[in-house]
Amino acid sequence: LKAVPGGWPFSGRQDMESVDVIIPAYNPGKEFERLLEALSTQSYPVQKILVMNTEEKYWKKIWEKRFPIVEVHHLKKEEFDHGGTRKKAAGLSNADIMVFMTQDALPKDKKLIRNLTEPLRKDEKIGASYARQLPKSDCRYLERYTRSFNYPEKSAVKWEKDTKTLGVKAYFCSNVCAAYRKNVYEETGGFVEKAIFNEDMIYVANMAKKGYGIAYASDAQVFHSHNYSCRQQFRRNFDLGVSQAEHPEIFEKVPSEGEGIRLVKKSLGYLVKTGHIWLIPQLVAQSGAKYMGYFLGKRYKKLSPKVIAFCTMNPEYWKK
How are the residues of the chain apportioned to helix, strand and coil, as percentages rounded to the nearest 5? Predict the structure, then answer.
């Protein structure tokens, strides 16, 4: 793992490259409008904002007038897929760099696009970069620590060889806010057509196996966090387990359990150190829900359709 505390090594790429932002959306509201406004005023210009909107009835046409760079494509709820929808959107983009975001992420400043794409613009062997996720103002105390665990202060570049020391963390990437070089994306096959979850890590793992690096750009920052209940954590991690079970060629050699245990231990130590010991039961409950969901997801083939329907966060996926 190569830490990059002082910026990215310069390799001679000075040309201005085009950037499209791609956002899957469902029933977008005021938060989404703030995102469109923030993306329209970035210091590094966005060529186009491609919105893959689920159900046209939820779309506000005024946004296309207010933000001329917005291009919306509508689809039915049953058509949406975490991998397939993003793959379709990538086919609609002719930009040099594609930035994928979720509708509930908000840029911290006007330098997001510049800082996120800088690793790709300065080193052609880096095929993907992802942003640092900061907690929102309403984020719970324990989740704030999880944010800092997954998104530290220092930038870094990860390669396939780092799986020996980092395990599955070497493939970590998040489409909450991530950039991909288009020519590398096309060369390495792009997102999988069908994915319940984890389409970002599946893609970058395949990309890393072909010699490309994954950059973590800590100076590219978005506000994004969730206050999931234990039940939501269970379902989210069930889908995570399913995605890994469906791609053993990637995840069998780099299991996630060790990273999960490390997070629990670090979180426990943090609560004790900061005097928030009353949150330990919450940590135990959430960790148990995560593990049970993940455990069952990895073994989903042994479960009945009714049990799967109860466990999953994405019921539409199972109807296809």
Answer: 50, 20, 35
| 3: nearest Cα among 204, 158, 231 | 158
**Helix runs in the chain, H state only:** 30-40, 62-66, 84-92, 112-122, 141-150, 163-166, 182-187, 199-209, 230-245, 248-251, 257-273, 280-298, 305-311
314 three-state secondary structure: coil
CA–CA dist 319, 313 (Å, integer): 13
The pTM score is: 0.92
Tens digit of pLDDT per residue, the chain (320 long)?
444 433 444 333 446 899 999 999 999 999 999 999 999 999 999 999 999 999 999 999 999 999 999 999 999 999 999 999 999 999 999 999 999 999 999 999 999 999 999 999 999 999 999 999 999 999 999 999 999 999 999 999 999 999 999 999 999 999 999 999 999 999 999 999 999 999 999 999 999 999 999 999 999 999 999 999 999 999 999 999 999 999 999 998 887 788 889 999 999 999 999 999 999 999 999 999 999 999 999 999 999 999 999 999 999 999 87
